[in-house]
């Protein structure tokens, strides 16, 4: 009698021989990962359709033998004991946990129907691990096993079909079992036709060798063509196009965050768009650590029903992104797997070439700029070197310094931030439509851009408007950064670039002292006082200016007057009262009265050149520091 209350008592472990027995029947323990690898290799070798048939037949034969052994080992008296013995024994094997929902059995009339749930199917787990979610159920071995088990005890062919499956994204696996005559022809062929021509072809070593040889020939030609693309220096888009045309499939190239870079053929949405659907959060996590192509099915609910074979692309800097093959439906064969892996490697090589070229170019630019900053630089040699790199530094240029700092003082800026900013600036300048080359390089915490006057003339944009355009572009992309532009006066010859760099650097330093977020200043904006002002003496100069003009500022605040503004225009007009009156839109008499009050309050003698100069300097300092608003 089969005692389901004490199943584990039937299993024995012989420590001396290492044998495991289920009563008198010898058993073995096999890891699910090992079976999963075998299953993966079978699918890759013969495709999902053929693998499904092999797994179904293996499972069916196993189920028949399992039922025979169970009959020999235990005394099972009634049909219902048979029904329950199989699910109960499945708990011991660990393949799955079965829970019957409905059973109809009538030996007299031949009626048979069973419906049940599977939980924790090892086959679904392994398929998800190696291939991702599939478009149809994947528990083929278990389906065949239950069909074979039921057929043996029923005495007629019972076919089991999996209706729902964890392997295709369902919450649980659901199976239905019925006599063979109640299923369609395809289901019968999948599970009962042991001698089909397809199986003969699979089992023919000669045909397998022939197919492999043809596949290797195609792959060899494929690799040769990809090598030509690399040798010719073509871009990634050429690899994507060739892959799509050769396999007649859609192809996408996406970065590590799933943003689309290139596509060919069948394409509707990027993976980033699809991942936004709630049921594909699992998918983005699945791809994080993949090392080889993974087949993923996008079913209903993803916005676009299709199949993707996805392969990572790695560079020396880590994961770059993903290259994918796309088809409406069906499996990917071994040739497509191999072609995608090859294309991924060639993309990595092409990216390595690009990164190396950029790094070499960046190093050469840095070296050139270091030489430009030397006091006694060799103008002839630098002119020659710059022309070889595509720049003519003998023509008039402006020099920009783009300083950047994080709003978070504890932030650790990314190592490649400078390269990203240079690329952003280069793209924006290029979009202006001029083919004039600009030299961009980096130094410490800032970018140096040498802008030809020719570019400004061709595009009709001024030097400050250009800086404002570049600043706006950077601010929109790097919202957590304080970005400051310093602009030199015009550099007309090689020897001027050292002076231009110092001017732009001085402008940036003074802007930094202002503690004002992203802004622009030109050396021409700093006027005479920029020659005496620097970050070290800024506090002292600020105190000097505030003390000198304190009385006038307090008077204006108390009486809502404009004495400070009057003083500014009087000094800017070099003491010309008539011009001052015109700028203020008041009478000459009113201007004279204001000037008299200014001198009485501040004790300044504006007829004295010393007081005149100090008052002008004090105003310039406070205006620069945004401490007063004259305009």
Detailed description of the structure:
The protein has 631 residues and is an alpha+beta fold. 51% of the residues lie in helices and 18% in strands. The strands form 4 sheets. A 5-stranded antiparallel sheet has the order 9-8-12-11-10, with helices on one face. The chain has a 5-stranded mixed sheet with strand order 14-15-13-16-17. The protein has a 4-stranded antiparallel sheet with strand order 4-5-7-6. Helix 17 crosses helix 21, helix 18 packs across helix 20 and helix 18 packs across helix 21. It is elongated.
| Strand arrangement, major sheet | 9-8-12-11-10
E-strand count = 17
Q: Helicity, in percent?
A: 40-55%
Number of helices: 21
**What Rg is obtained from the alpha carbons, in whole angstroms?**
40 Å
Q: What about the largest sheet?
A: 5 strands, antiparallel
Describe the global form.
elongated
State the separation between the terminal residues, measured CA to CA.
103 Å
Extract low-pLDDT stretches.
195-200
**Overall mean confidence score, pLDDT:** 81
- Helix/strand structural class: alpha+beta
């Amino acid at each position: 009698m089969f005692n389901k209350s004490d199943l584990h008592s039937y299993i024995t472990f012989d420590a001396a021989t290492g044998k495991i027995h289920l009563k008198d029947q010898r058993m073995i323990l096999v890891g699910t990962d090992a079976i999963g690898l075998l299953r993966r290799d079978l699918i890759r070798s013969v495709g999902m359709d053929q693998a499904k048939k092999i797994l179904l037949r293996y499972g069916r034969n196993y189920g028949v033998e399992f039922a025979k052994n169970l009959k020999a080992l235990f005394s099972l008296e009634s049909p219902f004991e048979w029904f329950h013995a199989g699910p109960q024994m499945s708990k011991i094997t660990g393949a799955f946990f079965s829970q019957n929902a409905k059973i109809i059995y009538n030996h007299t009339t031949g009626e048979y129907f069973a419906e049940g749930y599977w939980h924790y199917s090892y086959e679904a787990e392994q398929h998800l691990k190696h291939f991702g979610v599939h478009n149809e159920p994947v528990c083929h071995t278990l389906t065949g096993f239950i069909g074979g088990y039921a057929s043996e005890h029923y005495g007629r062919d019972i076919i089991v079909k999996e209706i729902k499956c964890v392997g295709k994204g369902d919450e649980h696996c659901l199976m239905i079992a019925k006599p063979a005559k109640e299923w369609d022809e395809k289901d019968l062929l999948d599970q009962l036709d042991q001698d089909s021509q397809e199986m003969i072809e699979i089992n023919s070593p000669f045909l397998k060798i022939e197919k492999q040889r043809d596949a290797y020939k195609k792959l060899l030609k494929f690799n040769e063509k990809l090598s030509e693309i690399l040798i010719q220096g073509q871009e990634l888009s050429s690899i994507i196009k060739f892959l799509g045309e050769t396999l007649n499939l859609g192809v996408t190239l996406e970065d590590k965050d799933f943003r689309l870079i290139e596509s060919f053929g069948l394409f509707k949405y990027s993976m980033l768009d699809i991942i936004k659907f709630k049921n594909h959060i699992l998918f983005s996590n699945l791809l994080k650590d993949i090392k080889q192509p993974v087949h993923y099915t996008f079913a209903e609910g993803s916005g676009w029903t299709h199949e993707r074979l996805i392969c990572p692309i790695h560079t020396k800097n880590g994961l770059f992104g993903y290259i994918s093959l796309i088809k409406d439906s069906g499996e990917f064969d071994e040739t497509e797997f191999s072609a995608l892996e090859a294309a991924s490697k060639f993309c990595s090589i092409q990216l390595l070439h690009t990164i190396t070229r950029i790094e070499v170019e960046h190093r050469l630019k840095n070296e050139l700029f270091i030489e430009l900053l030397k006091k006694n630089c060799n103008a002839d040699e630098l002119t020659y070197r710059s022309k070889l790199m595509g720049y003519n530094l003998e023509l008039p240029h402006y020099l920009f310094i783009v300083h950047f700092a994080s709003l978070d003082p504890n932030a650790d800026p990314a190592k490649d931030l400078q390269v990203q900013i240079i690329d952003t600036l280069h793209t924006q300048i290029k979009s202006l439509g001029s083919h004039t080359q600009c030299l961009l390089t980096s130094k410490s915490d800032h970018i140096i851009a040498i802008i030809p006057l020719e570019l400004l003339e061709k595009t009709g944009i001024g030097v400050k408007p250009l800086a404002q355009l570049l600043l706006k572009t950077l601010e929109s992309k790097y919202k957590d950064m304080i970005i400051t532009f310093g602009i030199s006066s015009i550099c007309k010859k090689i020897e001027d670039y050292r002076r231009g760099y110092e001017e732009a650097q001085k402008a940036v330093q003074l802007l930094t002292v202002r503690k004002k977020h992203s802004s622009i200043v030109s050396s021409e904006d700093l006027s005479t006082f920029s020659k005496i002002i620097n970050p070290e003496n800024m506090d002292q100069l600020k105190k000097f200016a505030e003390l000198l003009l304190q009385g006038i500022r307090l008077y204006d605040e108390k009486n809502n007057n404009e004495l400070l503004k009057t003083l500014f225009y009087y000094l800017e007009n070099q003491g010309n009262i008539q011009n001052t009156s015109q700028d203020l839109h008041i009478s000459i008499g009113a201007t004279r009265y204001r000037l008299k009050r200014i001198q009485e309050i501040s004790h300044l003698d504006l007829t004295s050149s010393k007081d005149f100069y100090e008052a002008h300097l004090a105003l310039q300092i406070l205006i620069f520091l945004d401490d007063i608003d004259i305009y």
